[in-house]
Specification:
Layout lengths: L1 H7 L2 H19 L8 E5 L1 H12 L6 E5 L6 H5 L11 E6 L7 H14 L5 E6 L8 H14 L2
Parallel strand pairs: 1-2, 2-3, 3-4
């Protein structure tokens, strides 16, 4: 049904996109040190960014996901690369999101906390924000980036 598709997402599409992002990372690593590479995305793009970062074999600088969730949590968390178990991660969500419920994002964040270094994880909730990005959220991402990029 529609609810199950939304909660579980397009896992096959996320996997295909994750592999594509991995290919781009491999190309960029020769030009940019991996610890200066930040992945990020909005909605399903955030799910792709989290999957790609946590499965990448070299330590990355960080990953952020906006109005997002991780539909394949159990599978992902059993396959996190050691290099990225302490990757800085930021998740932001609006409490008025009717497309990806904030509860889905928060549940994903909490599940990630069970497998990753909790001291590197940040959750930000934005009152009244729907499935969109706003100035305060962009500012939160910019502030976070300043703390994680060496």
């Amino acid at each position: 049904d529609r609810y199950q598709r939304r909660v579980h997402g397009d896992v096959q599409g996320i996997t295909i996109s994750e592999k594509f992002v991995g290919d781009i990372l491999r190309d960029e690593i020769g030009k940019v040190p991996p610890e200066r590479i930040i992945l990020g995305g909005f909605s399903q793009g955030g799910a792709v960014a989290i999957n790609a970062a946590l499965r990448y074999p070299k330590k990355l600088g960080g990953v952020f996901a906006l109005s997002s969730w991780v539909p394949n949590r159990a599978e992902l968390l059993s396959n996190v690369e050691a290099a990225n178990k302490s990757v800085p991660l930021l998740m932001c969500h609006g409490d008025a999101d009717t497309v990806v419920a904030e509860a889905w994002g928060k549940a994903s964040f909490e599940a990630l906390g069970a497998a990753l270094d909790k001291s590197k994880l940040t959750w930000k909730s934005f009152p009244g924000m729907g499935h969109q990005s706003t100035g305060p959220e962009v500012n939160a991402v910019a502030d976070w980036l300043l703390t994680v990029i060496p």
